[in-house]
Specification:
Strands 2-1-3-8 form a 4-stranded antiparallel beta sheet. A 4-stranded antiparallel beta sheet has the order 4-7-5-6, covered by helices on one side. Helix 1 (5-25) crosses helix 2 (69-82) and helix 1 (5-25) crosses helix 5 (188-194). By secondary structure, the protein is an alpha+beta fold. The chain folds into 2 domains: 5-106 and 181-194, Hypothetical protein ph0010, domain 1 (Glycoprotein, Type 4 Pilin); 109-179, Hypothetical protein ph0010, domain 2 (Dna Ligase, domain 1, 2-Layer Sandwich), CATH 3.30.1490.150. The chain is built from 5 helices and 8 strands, in the order αββαββαββαββα. Helices cover 31% and strands 23% of the residues. It is globular.
Length: 202
Amino acid sequence: MPCSATERATLLGVALKSIQSGLQTGTALKTDTDNYPHVLKETRATFVTLKHDDRLRGCIGSLEPCTRLVNSVAENAYAAAFRDPRFPVLTHPELHDLTIAISVLGPLQAVHCDSETDLLMELQARKHGWVIQEKGSRGTFLPSVWEALPDSQQFLEHLKMKAGLAADYWSDSIEIWQYSTESFSANAEEADKYAVPGVISG
């Protein structure tokens, strides 16, 4: 079930408050889920992506739903800011010009392809999020990655490398899934307006 505009705003406020909690206390925001609307209490998978000055600053999430939506956003926002191994921990001055993007994932759908050519055709026709898994290694790209890698061949090569595979690797045992996302974003100043008493409860 899609989130309403108010529910999206609430989640963006939660994400910001969790990042602020990390800066102040070193821990993610602890949410009292009983105070949130039913949709935000559903078990959903999410990714939270942070950008600073339009550059990636952190991205953490899960592909399978394992906790309530509001908790997932709080935990992944904190992790994107402080636990993404590709970046140093976020600092308070970086809140200025920080953009928070939330992706709420739909269920993974298995895709069966007999060849890389078949997969490339599927990729081009359906610019969803994609997952590749082989030999215990897994890589995923959110649909937003298509903005940076619009060519399906290039998209697939980078996805395979993210999964720890060679760019030209192919095997009949590769497992492939696609998924859709509901995505929305706000800069920290906007998100701060959503993080008001009565809307966000910790």
